[in-house]
Design brief:
Order of helices and strands: HEEEEEEEEEEEEEEEEEEEEEEEH
Number of helices: 2
Number of strands: 23
CATH architecture of one domain: Sandwich
Structural class: alpha+beta
Shape: rod-shaped
Distance between the termini: 210 Å
Keywords: Membrane, Signal, Transmembrane, Transmembrane helix
InterPro entries: Ig-like_fold
Largest sheet: 6 strands, mixed
CATH topology of one domain: Immunoglobulin-like
CATH class of one domain: Mainly Beta
Organism: Labedaea rhizosphaerae
Protein name: SdrD B-like protein
Radius of gyration: 47 Å
Oligomer: single chain
CATH superfamily of one domain: ntegrin, alpha v. Chain A, domain 3
Helix content: 10-25%
Length: about 325
Amino acid sequence: MIRTFVGKACALAAVGMVLTTPAAFADDQADRTATVTGVLFDDQNRNGVRDAGEPGLAGLKVHGTKDVVTDAEGRYTITGVLHGSTADLWLPIAANGGKLTLSKPKDATGVAWISGWVYVEVGADPVTTHDFGYGRWGADQDVSFSWSDHGRDPSHVQVGDKMRVDAETTTGAAPGYGGVLITAPVGTHVVRRELAPGTAYDWLDSRHVRIYGLRHQDPKSNRMFPVDIVVDRPTRGNITVELTHDQNTDTNKSNNKASMAIVAKAKPAKHADQVVAPRHDSGTGTQTPQASSSKELAYTGVEPKPYLAAGVALLGVGAALVGVARRRPRRTEVKSS
């Protein structure tokens, strides 16, 4: 009888454990997991904090333990994150067609930040909240030209000259690619050159080239794009440079284009009488140039007389013949007896 009672008790205990374990496990899981939530918002003043009047951004996908989309208020919610762990989230780096860019939070405590990846540390609290702002770059991107050929004036170049100009972009309070489109005037062409590190060139045609960086330039930085342009024929026009990247986030459009006027003339023709001046050794170790033009030859004032020269030559021949005749030996006459 005792055995029967013990057996029944064990059976009931086993059944009770089976029936109560899922509930206990669920309660235990609820105690050990947390929710990570927050709002992705339009950080209009770029201070990293959601201020009154800054709206949430709806429809942005957040990647975590599962993918979620921000609701109408811009809120994301990730559940089932274990206490004492890290929630790995990937946030889109741009919003509103690229006009807004993910900003690093002003207070990054508990958040490791690498580009769009954020690693949120989850403690013992049931809910961990982190808002992330998207701000307008506010970068006053501008472009300018500088003339590298310091020995020449761009308004006085000649056909065949190669001109070196530098297009420069400057970022403002936020990073940027700083891409530009350079246009050479009619009558010139852009010289293809080797790619600079971290830079890409799009050769559109002989007069147009697009140059841009392959990575973001740091805030408040300059990027220089050197360009060589050759003059093919006399012309008058402008070399222009125009910002082609970061337009959506640039706050000042008035300085996105610059130009430089050039006037190219034909090279002066050489005089018809001009010849290459030969050089000869004077015997003293130095070389002296001969006259390079007949106009440089000395004039003595005496014109050459051809007939006079011929007469002098005949007199010389006659004198020579007389001398020969005088040197001939006399003949000896023999008388007969």
